[in-house]
Write a structure and sequence with these properties.
alpha+beta; 60s Ribosomal Protein L30, Chain: A; 8-stranded mixed β-sheet; 16 helices; 8 strands; about 50% helix
């Protein structure tokens, strides 16, 4: 074979190989392989036996926390995140008088940043340099367990957006009309409760007082689950708010989706975050006013709350916000939202607080015994939310910022959006078992 012909053959093979690789990368198998590669780059830190605490945490415990974080980062050869981060905290307390989740989170977020001088770590910062790098935050805390622990998961925020985009594609590929019918059936509970309240006298005569009250409580639970279930942004809507999926026209740009979110009557719309001196008190009053307006619209369903709720917050800062006054996501929840929302709505930090154990014991003693003699967490932890998550959208020039808040029914163990994204992708992956339509194994084993 002559040299020119051999060179041409080599060039042809290279182009064929590159074409093959590009085809793989846009295939289902390639998309999942990229997701797995991103997932392998996440940082997972697990600290067992150390009690999650607030800023009152003793110095030896703070040191122990940072040393464990540093040791686990070294073990997987990871360094400090330099760019934007998506962060998840899963906390378990065993103390008889633990602090509230948002005060624990404040302390841990600070400890994950600046390294103390007595901790062996080559950089000034541990997981990230500053809280402002956190663009998505999820905090969950369970009180009253036998042993304390802390799980921390961190990934780059661009990787989080790639995962969100893939999950949106996966939902489009796997969602059926059955899911829409199920949502419609759930919404019927709201109409049923309306009829019970409107025709109370007639219903009481037909059912009797005890049966009416029991039935109304059951219907109220279902109606709250339906109403507050619809208040959250799902994977697709959150994706659209970030302008995803890329390259696929939806007919609405991200600003239009943000405008629709900001007009939803199922959410608390509390306006722009304060950026000027003295504006905090005005913003707090706006939160108070919006809570009152929301209660006026929906109290007939949500008062009293008989389901546990989580907070879901979407924030878009004003483009004119100076970097020095950009609000940390945790501060938004801790300083402005929880102090007003929790007492106004009577939210509780654990689903166990929504169970009437005295009634359960009278109705089903065996089931009540299965919960143990002291089934609820420490009394001081009652007021709160089961979890909260916050997502920061990019600022848009010449458009106002906003804070949009949903009280989300936390009854189905669906978890936060980060968890839903992973589960959606895994379910989509499980559907790729037909080797005739999705050459999963052939792609996986082919040599380039």
């Amino acid at each position: 074979m002559t040299a020119p012909r051999y060179a041409l053959l080599q060039k042809t093979e290279v182009h064929a190989t590159l074409s093959d690789f590009k085809a793989f990368m846009v295939s289902d198998a390639g998309k999942f392989a990229q997701y797995q590669a991103r997932r392998n780059k996440r940082v997972h830190i697990y600290i067992d036996g150390l009690e999650p605490q607030s800023k009152k945490m003793l110095a030896p415990d703070r040191t122990a926390f940072q040393e464990e974080v540093a040791a686990q980062l070294k073990a997987v050869k990871r360094s400090t995140f330099r760019g934007d981060v998506a962060l998840k905290l899963d906390l378990v307390t065993a103390s008889k008088a633990p602090p509230h989740a948002h005060t624990i989170a404040k302390n841990l977020l600070d400890l994950l940043g600046n390294r103390m001088t007595n901790v062996d770590w080559p950089r000034k910062s541990l997981l990230y340099a500053d809280d402002c790098q956190i663009q998505a935050l999820s905090v969950m805390c369970r009180h009253g367990e036998d042993r304390p622990s802390m799980r921390i998961e961190a990934r780059s925020f661009p990787a989080m957006l790639d995962d969100l985009e893939l999950a949106t594609d996966a939902m489009r590929a796997t969602e059926t009309m059955q899911s829409y019918y199920e949502r419609d059936r759930e919404d019927e509970w709201v109409d049923t409760l309306r009829e019970l309240v409107r025709d109370e006298e007639k219903q009481r005569r037909a059912l009797g007082d005890d049966m009416y009250e029991a039935y109304k409580k059951m219907v109220r639970w279902s109606a709250q689950r339906a109403l507050l279930g619809r208040s959250s942004v799902d994977i697709s809507v959150l994706s659209w708010l970030y302008g995803l999926p890329r390259g696929i026209p939806t007919g609405f740009d991200k600003s239009m989706w943000a405008d629709l979110l900001g007009k939803s009557k199922l959410r608390l719309q509390v306006g722009e975050l304060p950026i000027a001196t003295g504006a905090s008190s005005v913003f707090k009053q706006k939160v108070t006013d919006e809570i009152a307006a929301f209660k006026q619209r929906w109290d007939w369903i949500i008062d009293p709350l008989v389901v546990a709720v989580a907070l879901e917050v979407v924030v878009r800062p004003n483009a004119k916000t100076p970097p020095g006054v950009l609000h940390d996501l945790d501060n938004i929840v801790r300083n402005y939202l929880i102090p007003g929302i929790v007492p106004a709505f009577g939210t509780v930090s654990d689903q166990r607080w929504t169970i009437d154990f005295a009634e359960l014991r009278a109705r089903d003693p065996k089931l009540a015994d299965a919960w143990g003699s002291n089934p609820t967490p420490p009394a001081g932890t009652r007021n709160g939310v089961t979890r909260y998550e916050v997502w920061r959208l990019p600022a848009v020039e010449d458009e106002p910022g906003f804070v949009s808040v949903a009280l989300v029914a936390d009854t189905d163990a669906t978890g936060d959006i980060m968890q839903q994204v992973d589960e959606c992708i895994e379910q989509w992956r499980d559907a790729l078992d037909d080797d005739d339509r999705h050459p999963w194994r052939r792609w996986r084993h082919r040599r380039w």
